[in-house]
Design a protein that fits this description.
1 helix, six-stranded antiparallel β-sheet, mainly beta, two-stranded antiparallel ribbon
């Protein structure tokens, strides 16, 4: 559970991890260092209009400011809602969080 609340139109995103294996193919270390550009919205500010918590998004490679969640040391990004390039998948329930 995240203990941060973004302000205004900011969102907090948990980035997808780049796996060390895809099927039976080993992904080399230098390839894994490429930043993931997909993630899931884990918190949003009150002024966010088109994303909900749980929305999977696509964002630019160097968007946002990296932070660590104090509870479980998860790597997160704080970014503006305007940094979202595309919505990949909306959460199953339409209730806005």
């Amino acid at each position: 559970m995240i203990d941060l609340e973004p302000i205004g139109e900011r969102i907090i995103v948990k980035k997808d991890e780049v796996p060390d294996k895809i099927g039976r193919i080993h992904v080399p270390g230098n390839t894994r260092e490429i930043e993931a550009t997909e993630g899931v919205v884990v918190a949003k500010g009150v002024d966010c209009s088109f994303v909900s918590i749980g929305t999977i998004i696509l964002f630019a490679r160097y968007s946002g400011s990296p932070i660590k969640d104090r509870c479980d040391e998860t790597n997160l990004l704080v970014m503006n809602e305007s940094d979202i390039l595309a919505i990949i998948e909306k959460p199953a329930n339409k209730k806005d969080n």
